Each structure stands twice: as structure tokens, then as C-alpha cells.
Amino acid sequence: MARIEEHQSVDLESPVLVEGLPGVGLVGKIAADHLVREFDMTHVASCHCDGIPNVAIYAEDEPDIRPPVRFYADETRDLLVLQSDIPVSPNAAEDFASCVTGWLAENDVLPLYLSGIPQEKDGVPEMYGVSTGEAAGLLAEYDIDTPSENGMISGPTGALLAEAGKQNLDALGLVVQANANFPDPEAARVLLTQAVGPVAAVEVDTDHLVEQADRIAEAREKLAQRMQQAEEESTRAEPLGMYQ
């Protein structure tokens, strides 16, 4: 049965949710995971919705398994995070979105849905926002640009936004330029500093994400060099590192 299973009650007043489903550049997942770590957030609920594989997730040095899609909370900041360790099947995205959105509406949550758009970028990645319900005023209030061209947000994140529109739930969709082939912590940092932080009224230290971006850029350069040399080398296997 599709449901959100609450593990403990929390005292939140009209909280902001940051969604972290895997997508282009893993921008949403990187941002969500960073918030959970930085604020030492508490696992308060789990998603048992259609479209989520029935798998068991475990963590380093922890004996207990956990479901793959979870809600975390920080009562002092009125903040929720939807953290996912696996992608949600696009074929079941509509059912998943209906399951999650009903719970958000019941708890008076303002969701921030994060997505990357695969584009080459020069300098700081550009970001824009779209809205549902009566959330359009937040874009102007926090100086978030609206789209400069027509576009579409697809997959589970797009389904969540579409369902928010159907249910007239206030929500923001935040889209940032991101690398299509590699995790992009620089793009995730833009989402956190230019949108999530201001809208949720939280201060987020993103120095660690900047360090990650530097390491990934170096790894990309090394990979390009290896690809150029590939024709001169015999076939072999070698580790490429966690960001490859």
C-alpha cells in the first residue's frame, strides 16, 4: 500500500522541503545530502510509494538497514529533506508524486523541487525558477529569475511539480545549469546559496561543495587525457574514482 510511514512526530511550522532525487548532475541529491550532513538531520519518515524499488540500504558502520527514500527533519530550522539513494522509475513517477504530494499538503509543506538542465556553462551556473499555487511571489521576493526560454521538467521531479499544480499546492521548481555526465557540486552549491538558503531562511556552509567541485574538475581533466591516450594503450581495467 502506497504511504508515507512516520517514525516519530516532529514539531514543524509550515516547513520548507528540499527534494533530492537523482537527476542531471545529481544536483538535487548533492544538495539534499549536504543539508542532512551539515545539520545532522533526523530520519523521521519513509516513503513506501509505487515506483520505489523494494531494496535495503545500509550505511558504513551502521547495522540497521533503511528504506531507499526517506524524509529528514530539523525542528529548529523548520526544514525537511527528501533524500533518495536510488532513482524512482519514470514509469511510476505519477503514482509516486501523488503519494508524496498528499503528505506534503497534509503537513502544510512548501516543497523546493531541484533539477539540473544539461548545458555548457561559462563561470557560475545560471539558475531560474518556476512555481505552482501561489508561490510565484517567492521568485520575485528572493530575486530568482524566471525562464528565458520554453522548457520541460521531466521524470519524477517533473511529476512532483505537475502534481503540486493539480493539487494547487504552493511549490517552487528550481533549475540550474549542470554537467550532464558528471556529478556537479558547483551547480548544487548555486541552488543552496541562491535559492534554498534564502527561501528556507537557513545559512548553509558550502565550502565542502566547492572543494568537491575542484576535485571533480581535476578528475574530468585526467579522464580526458586518458581517453586521448586510449588508442595507444591495450585494454585494461582501472579504478577511476568515485566521481567518474
Tally of alpha and pi helices = 6
Q: Give the second-level CATH assignment, the architecture.
A: 3-Layer(aba) Sandwich
The proportion of residues forming helix, as a percent range, comes to 25-40%
Topology-level CATH name: Rossmann fold
Total beta strands: 8
Instruction: Please indicate the count of domains.
Output: 1
Instruction: Specify the oligomeric state.
Output: single chain
Profile the largest sheet: 8 strands, mixed
Structure description:
The chain is α/β, with parallel strands linked by helices and 244 residues long. It has a single domain (3-204), classed as PAC-like subunit (Rossmann fold). The chain is 34% helix and 21% strand. The protein is built from six helices and eight strands; from the N terminus they run E-E-H-E-E-E-H-E-E-H-H-E-H-H. The chain has helices at residues 27-38, 93-106, 136-141, 155-166, 185-200, 207-229; strands spanning 3-6, 16-20, 42-48, 69-74, 79-84, 110-118, 127-132, 171-178. It has an eight-stranded mixed sheet, sandwiched between helices. Strand 4 (69-74) and strand 5 (79-84) form a beta hairpin. Helix 1 (27-38) packs across helix 5 and helix 2 crosses helix 4. The longest helix is centred in the last third of the chain and has 23 residues, at 207-229. The radius of gyration is 18 Å and the shape is globular.
